[in-house]
Write a structure and sequence with these properties.
Length: 107
């Protein structure tokens, strides 16, 4: 399916349930902030590009990845799953135990 948002559009890979961008994008999804190739924060937003820019005020990071899902409902499942899996230093308050078994995302 084709996703469109404010004059931007892209085609999702029909064989995957998600697409990963190695840059900030203005779509709804999950974003990962990295510093020295280590995930330091995982969040979700309806406009990841704006939210990532807000983090520049209080977090030091040198790269980002953004994940856009075919089904927006997957965002709410994968955010806590990824936080539990990678345990980013800035997500300490959100390290709830989750027993979800989800398909792996190669990030």
């Amino acid at each position: 399916p084709k996703i469109e948002y404010q004059k931007m559009s892209f085609e999702l890979n029909p064989d995957e349930n998600y697409t990963i961008f190695n840059e900030a994008v203005s779509f709804y999804g999950i974003y990962l902030l990295y510093n020295d190739n280590k995930i330091i924060y995982i969040g979700k937003s309806n406009n990841m590009k704006n939210r990532i820019n807000q983090h520049k005020k209080d977090k030091t990071f040198d790269s980002v990845k953004c994940i856009v899902f075919k089904d927006e409902g997957m965002v709410n499942l994968y955010e806590p799953y990824l936080i539990q899996k990678y345990k980013p230093i800035y997500n300490k308050d959100l390290l709830a135990t989750t027993n979800l078994e989800l398909p792996e995302i190669n990030i």
